[in-house]
Amino acid sequence: MHKTFQYADKKTGSYYVTGSGPVVVLLHGFGEDGSAWEHQTNYLAKTSKIIVPSLPGTHGSDITHPLTIESMADFVHALLVAEGIQKVVMIGHSMGGYITLAFAEKYGDMLQGFGLFHSSGLADTEEKKEARRKSIRLIQDYGHDTFIRQAIPGMFANRYRTEHPEKVDNYLHRAMHIPGATLIAYYEAMILRPDRTAVLKQAQVPVLFIIGEEDTAVTMDAIMPQTSYPTTASIHILEKVGHMGLWEEAEESNYILEQFIRYCNHS
User: Fold this and answer.
1) Chain centroid, CA 49 distance in Å
2) pLDDT tier at 108 (50, 70, 90 boundaries)?
């Protein structure tokens, strides 16, 4: 069921909710909307209540200015308040992981556990910031369609792109519906976000790490040291997978998430 709520000076937020049981929030990443989680939503709804927000600027959710990682964490909090929910397990893919960490920093008492799915607690390096600025200029000069066709396929591992070109095209088609202004706002928010590895070190709840062996956006070298920070961590490496394990290895991802959610609700 698609629902809406009011937040931040009468802005409208949109989200999808299905299933019943312990509450799980799935946060999508850059270049996505909530439909990126479709494989997980259908599976996890058998045992949990699944909430999938469309983050500001996507699929019916008004964008706020300025848009920051922290304001998007506030957006998720406002949604949960509107739903009357007090405890959740939260999983964030890529940029959604940055938002999850910001949420944990500010509203940690609401979390039974959280997960970084191809994501990191580190701030951008100067090199990464410049790469994002270059992408912003590409969107401004040539349009977001050109940017998406150039940048998005590289999020998938080579094997998946070769074996499932139709699925990559499907993902691209969905990304085309995200306004260029939203993509730019997301980039600017990611550039400005601080290091939040301290949130991992201070976590009092289980933390899930799902890592793509061939992920070039959030590399194994960057994320593996962070897996030692939480007191309780569940660590999974998806072999021959890039940045899109939720699609590239949907079945394995579903099983990992299901087990983590069950653990968080019984630990």
Assistant:
1) 18
2) very high
Count the domains in the chain: 1
Exposure string of 66-76, with b = 16+ CB inside 10 Å and e = fewer, is ebbbbbbbbbb
Asked, for residue 99, whether it belongs to a domain, the answer is yes
Parallel, antiparallel or unpaired: strands 88-93 and 233-238 = unpaired
pLDDT of residue 67: 96
Residue 251 belongs to domain with CATH number: 3.40.50.1820
For residue 205, what are the domain limits? 2-122+195-266
Torsion of CA 91, 146, 67, 15, to 10 degrees: -50
Comparing CA positions, the residue from 6, 30, 3, 37 lying closest to residue 17 is 3
The helix (H) or strand (E) run that includes residue 210 is strand 207-212
- Report pTM: 0.97
Q: How far apart are CA 7 and CA 73, in angstroms?
A: 12
Distance between CA 202 and CA 136 in Å, rounded? 34
The pLDDT value given to residue 266: 87
Measured CA to CA in angstroms, residue 247 lies from 43, 112, 120, 130, 214 at distances of: 13, 25, 19, 28, 14
Does any domain span residue 48?
A: yes
In a domain, 135, yes or no: no
Q: For the chain, what's the residue count?
A: 267
207 is a domain residue: yes
Residues near 180 by beta carbon (within 8 Å), at least 6 away in sequence = 139, 140, 143, 144, 147
Residue 240 backbone phi and psi in degrees, to 5: 55, 35
